[in-house]
Amino acid sequence: QVQLVESGGGLVQTGGSLRLSCAASGSIFRIHDMGWYRQAPGKQRELVAVITSGSSTNYADSVKGRFTISRDNAKNSMYLQMNSLKPEDTAVYYCNVHAQATGVIASYWGQGTQVTVSS
């Protein structure tokens, strides 16, 4: 089993910044790709950013230039630095990890952390 704990969400004003963290724990042999997703009320969950095991990154067009995804393999952690936040960024943010615990690579989700950007 792999557990993901997210933190760093909160309420900020337009133009503000937040740094989200996601820490993985449990019986982890290897972590592969990791990513951040978000879901706004009444909308489908969407990809925000991904980072591969080789630290290659990709971002949704809506956050390019504003968000930065990173990972710390030694800590089994992932981060999302969010700058120049907009009201449109308001959503529950979820971390996702592709991890190998035994012999199978599985996808794991965090509980989500609320990000609210006031206008």
Question: Secondary structure elements and their pairing?
Answer:
Elements: E1 2-7, E2 10-13, E3 18-26, E4 30-39, E5 46-51, E6 57-59, E7 67-72, E8 77-82, E9 91-100, E10 105-109, E11 113-118
Please give a quick description of this structure:
The chain has strands at residues 2-7, 10-13, 18-26, 30-39, 46-51, 57-59, 67-72, 77-82, 91-100, 105-109, 113-118.
Which key features would you list for this structure?
119 residues, mainly beta, seven-stranded mixed β-sheet, four-stranded antiparallel β-sheet, 0% helix
Describe the structure.
This protein has strands spanning 2-7, 10-13, 18-26, 30-39, 46-51, 57-59, 67-72, 77-82, 91-100, 105-109, 113-118. It is mainly beta and 119 residues long. Strands 2, 4, 5, 6, 9, 10 and 11 form a seven-stranded mixed β-sheet that branches. The chain has a four-stranded antiparallel β-sheet with strand order 1-3-8-7, with no helix packed on it. A hairpin with a 4-residue loop joins strand 9 and strand 10. The chain is elongated and about 45 Å long. The protein starts with a strand and ends with a strand. 30% of the residues are buried.
Chain-averaged pLDDT: 95
Distance between the termini: 40 Å
Roughly how many Å is the radius of gyration? 14 Å
Instruction: Please give the number of β-strands.
Output: 11
Beta-strand content estimate: over 45%
Shape assignment: elongated
